[in-house]
Specification:
Layout: H1 2-19, E1 22-24, E2 29-34, E3 41-44, E4 49-54, E5 59-65, E6 72-77, E7 80-85, E8 88-90, E9 96-101, E10 106-111, E11 114-132, E12 135-151, E13 154-170, E14 173-190, E15 193-208, E16 211-215, E17 219-225, E18 229-232
Parallel strand pairs: 1-8, 3-7, 3-10, 4-9, 4-11, 10-11, 11-12, 12-13, 13-14, 14-15, 15-16, 15-17, 16-18
Antiparallel strand pairs: 2-5, 5-9, 6-7
Length: 235
């Protein structure tokens, strides 16, 4: 009876301390090719730089110190590539993950990670989500773009789109003066800021001290609650 009780307890201890293990980086940075399937969405759950290239081939290469490679997890969840860690990582070297993919649809950063595009993301619809202090930088061509920032994250977009619907909750920032859009919607709750380039219409809703600045001469509709502002940017 005692053995039956100790085995489950020991198993729980392994799970508990295994998940909380700290990995301290040592040695040189090495490249590790990860096996992945086809995916059109990336979810980054760690403090790494993800460099994405539009390509017909799907691939993932992790560049980090050799002894922490095992702690960097890349796994498929349906059509989503999830990048995360087991335990805590301590390293003086940058962790860089190079990804090639086709038909990009969605990018999500949870925490302080960063995703940047090497070339242009092209799709009918693109979705960007940041939870925390992460950063996404991308050049895009799309019919419809949606984005959501919760926290202090930064979304930096260039290119073109027919419509762009953005939401900011907190102190996040959307830099999209270099993204030419026809119709734009910006909703800010908090102290966030959005720079928008709209040629046809702009609907801006600000609750708090946030600010929407816009280029172009769109038809503007605004709903402001608090000390926020919606103003045309003068170059």
């Amino acid at each position: 009876m005692k053995i039956k009780l100790l085995l489950p307890f020991s198993f729980l201890l392994v799970l508990l301390f295994g998940c909380n293990r700290t990995y301290v980086g040592e040695g040189i940075v090495v490249s590790n090719v990860r096996e992945v399937g086809e995916f059109n969405r990336i979810v980054l759950n760690m403090g790494a730089l993800v460099v994405v290239k539009d390509s017909l081939v799907h691939s993932c290469v992790v560049k980090a110190q050799g002894n922490i490679q095992e702690a960097i997890i890349t796994r498929m969840d349906g059509n989503t590539l999830v990048i995360t860690t087991k335990g805590q990582l301590i390293t003086d070297e940058d962790i860089v993950i190079e990804i090639s993919m086709n038909k990009e649809m969605a990018f999500e950063v949870n925490g302080s990670g960063k995703i940047v595009s090497v070339n242009t993301f092209k799709n009918d619809e693109l979705d960007f989500e940041i939870n925390g202090s992460g950063v996404i930088e991308a050049d895009v061509v799309a019919n419809k773009i949606t984005s959501n920032i919760s926290g202090s994250g930064i979304l930096d977009l260039s290119g073109s789109a027919n419509s762009f619907n953005m939401q900011i909750s907190g102190s996040g920032t959307v830099n999209s003066f270099n993204l030419l859009t026809l119709d734009a919607k910006a909703s800010i709750s908090g102290s966030g800021e959005a720079d928008v380039n709209a040629g046809k219409s702009l609907y801006a809703k600000v609750s708090g001290s946030g600010a929407v600045r816009y280029l172009g001469n769109p038809e503007v509709s605004k709903d402001i609650s608090g000390s926020g502002s919606v103003k045309q940017h003068v170059q």
